[in-house]
C-alpha cells in the first residue's frame, strides 16, 4: 500500500523550511566581515538581526491566518520570494539602514511567513495521528537547513567573501519555489482524502479578515494564564538559541582564537543533533506530560550555558564537543511539547495562538541578538550574556511546571 499523501505534503514542507532557513546560517558568520568592511558596530549589526528575528515572530500569527484565507501554497511562494530578494539586495548595500531594511524587513517578513506556524498548519490539517512526531520532524527542518548551509556559507565567506554567500542563500530560497507550487496542497479534501489517522472532513470555506482574526485570537488567549506562561518560556527559548548561540557563538569562539570555519562547523553539528533531539521530543510528547518535558529541557539547557564560558578555546576539545552535542539535542526540543500544550488549551485556534507564542520566542531572540552585540562592545566579552541566559532558562523550567491542565479554549474565534 502506498504511503498516505500527508507524508508527501510533510516532505514538501520539510524542504520548504530548509530553503527558507538558509538565511539563518548567515548572520553569525557575517558579523565580523561586515564590521571590518563597513566599520559598523556589533550593536548595529545585532540590531538588524534583532529586527529580522522580531518580524519573524510577529509575522507568524498573521501568516497562519493568511494561510486560512489564501492557502498555504500562495503564502509560502511569496514568502520565499521575499527571502530571496532580501538576501540578494544586501549584496549592493553600503549603509547600515539598508542592512536593517533587507535583512530586517524583507527577510524577517519572509521567514516569518514560513515560521513554525506553517508547521502547525500542515500538522493540524493533514494529520490526526502522529502529530507530535510530524511537529518534531518539521521543526527539525530548520536545523537541517543550518546543517546544510552553515559549513558551505562559512567556506564561501572564508574564501570568497560574504557577498557570494548571500547570493547562495537567495538561490536556495528560489530553488524551492517550483516544488511548493507543484506539490504542496492546502487541505486533504483538495485531493479527496481524509487527514492521516482521521476521518474525511470537507475543506472549510476561506476565512476573511485574517488580520482581525489573528488579533482577536490574541486578545482571547491573553485572558488565560497558560498563554503568558507559554509566551514567557518560549521567549527564553528564543533568547538562548537563535538570539544567543546562532547569532553570537561564532564571533565569541573567534574572540578566543577559534577559526570561523571551525566554529561554524560546531554550529552545524548542533544542527545534526537538533534533528535527532527534536524528532525524539515529538515522540516523547506523544507519550509523556508536555509540561514536565519542558521543565526538564529548560533546566538542562540552563546548566549547560553556565559552563560554556569555561569551554571556549582556540581549538575544539572534547568538553566543547559534549556541549555542542547536548545543546543540539535540546535546541528546539521545546517546540513539540509547547505546541501540544497550545493544542490542548486552544483547540482549532492553536495554530494562531502558537504563532503569537512564537512571536514571543523571536522577541526574546531579538532582544538577546541586540544585547549580546552591545555587551561585546561594552565588556569586550560575551561571558555575562552566557550566565544571564543560563539563569533565564532556570526560570523557564519553573514557569513550565506552573502551567495547569485546563479545558479546551472557551473563546474559540471564527473568521
Draw up the topology in text.
Blueprint: H1 5-21, H2 27-38, H3 42-70, H4 72-89, H5 96-113, H6 116-126, H7 131-160, H8 162-183, H9 210-221, H10 225-255, H11 260-285, H12 290-311, H13 318-330, H14 335-346, H15 350-379, H16 383-402
Helix pairs in contact: 1-6, 1-7, 1-8, 2-3, 2-10, 3-4, 3-5, 3-6, 3-9, 3-15, 4-5, 4-8, 6-7, 6-15, 7-8, 7-11, 7-14, 10-11, 10-14, 10-15, 10-16, 11-13, 11-14, 12-13, 12-14, 12-16, 14-15
Overall description:
- With 415 residues, this protein is mostly helical.
- It is built from 16 helices and no strands.
- The chain has helices spanning 5-21, 27-38, 42-70, 72-89, 96-113, 116-126, 131-160, 162-183, 210-221, 225-255, 260-285, 290-311, 318-330, 335-346, 350-379, 383-402.
- Helix 3 (42-70) packs antiparallel against helix 15 (350-379), helix 10 (225-255) packs parallel to helix 15 and helix 12 (290-311) runs antiparallel to helix 14.
- Residues 408-415 have low confidence and may be disordered.
> How large is the count of helical segments?
16
Helix content: over 70%
General form: globular
Structural class: mainly alpha
Let me know the number of strands: 0
User: Which consecutive residue ranges, at least 5 long each, have pLDDT under 50?
Assistant: 408-415
What is the straight-line distance between the termini?
38 Å
Helix-strand sequence: HHHHHHHHHHHHHHHH
Q: Radius of gyration, rounded?
A: 20 Å
Describe the main β-sheet briefly. none
Summarize the structure.
This protein has 415 residues and is an all-alpha fold.
Amino acid at each position: 500500500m502506498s504511503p498516505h499523501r500527508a507524508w508527501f505534503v510533510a516532505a514538501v514542507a520539510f524542504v520548504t523550511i530548509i530553503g527558507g532557513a538558509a538565511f539563518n546560517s548567515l548572520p553569525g558568520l557575517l558579523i565580523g566581515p561586515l564590521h571590518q568592511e563597513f566599520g559598523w558596530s556589533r550593536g548595529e549589526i545585532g540590531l538588524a538581526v534583532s529586527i529580522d528575528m522580531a518580524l519573524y515572530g510577529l509575522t507568524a500569527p498573521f501568516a497562519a491566518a493568511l494561510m486560512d484565507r489564501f492557502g498555504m501554497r500562495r503564502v509560502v511562494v511569496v514568502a520565499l520570494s521575499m527571502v530571496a530578494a532580501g538576501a540578494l539586495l544586501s549584496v549592493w548595500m553600503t549603509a547600515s539602514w539598508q542592512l536593517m531594511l533587507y535583512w530586517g524587513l524583507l527577510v524577517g517578513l519572509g521567514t516569518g511567513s514560513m515560521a513554525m506556524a506553517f508547521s502547525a498548519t500542515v500538522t493540524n490539517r493533514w494529520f490526526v495521528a502522529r502529530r507530535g512526531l510530524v511537529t518534531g520532524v518539521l521543526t527539525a527542518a530548520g536545523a537541517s537547513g543550518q546543517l546544510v548551509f552553515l559549513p558551505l556559507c562559512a567556506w564561501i565567506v572564508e574564501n570568497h567573501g560574504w557577498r557570494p554567500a548571500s547570493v547562495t542563500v537567495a538561490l536556495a530560497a528560489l530553488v524551492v519555489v517550483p516544488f511548493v507550487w507543484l506539490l504542496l496542497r492546502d487541505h486533504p479534501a483538495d485531493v479527496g482524502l481524509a487527514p492521516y489517522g482521521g476521518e474525511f472532513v470537507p475543506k472549510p470555506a476561506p476565512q476573511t479578515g485574517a488580520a482581525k482574526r489573528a488579533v482577536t485570537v490574541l486578545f482571547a488567549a491573553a485572558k488565560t494564564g497558560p498563554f503568558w506562561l507559554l509566551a514567557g518560556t518560549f521567549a527564553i527559548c528564543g533568547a538562548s538559541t537563535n538570539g544567543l548561540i546562532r547569532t553570537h557563538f561564532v564571533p565569541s569562539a573567534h574572540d578566543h582564537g577559534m577559526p570561523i570555519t571551525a566554529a561554524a562547523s560546531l554550529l552545524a553539528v548542533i544542527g545534526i543533533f537538533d534533528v535527532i533531539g527534536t524528532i525524539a521530543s515529538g515522540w516523547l510528547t506523544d507519550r509523556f506530560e508536555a509540561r514536565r518535558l519542558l521543565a526538564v529541557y529548560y533546566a538542562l539547557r540552563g546548566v549547560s550555558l553556565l559552563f560554556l564560558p569555561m569551554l571556549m578555546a582556540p581549538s575544539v576539545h572534547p568538553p566543547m564537543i559534549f556541549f555542542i552535542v547536548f545543546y543540539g539535542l535540546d535546541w528546539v526540543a521545546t517546540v513539540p511539547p509547547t505546541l501540544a500544550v497550545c493544542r490542548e488549551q486552544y483547540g482549532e485556534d492553536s495554530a494562531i495562538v502558537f504563532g503569537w507564542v512564537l512571536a514571543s520566542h523571536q522577541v526574546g531572540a531579538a532582544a538577546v541578538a541586540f544585547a549580546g552585540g552591545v555587551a561585546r562592545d561594552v565588556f569586550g566579552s560575551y561571558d555575562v550574556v552566557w550566565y544571564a541566559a543560563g539563569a533565564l532558562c532556570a526560570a523557564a523550567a519553573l514557569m513550565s511546571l506552573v502551567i495547569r491542565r485546563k479545558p479546551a479554549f472557551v473563546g474559540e474565534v471564527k473568521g
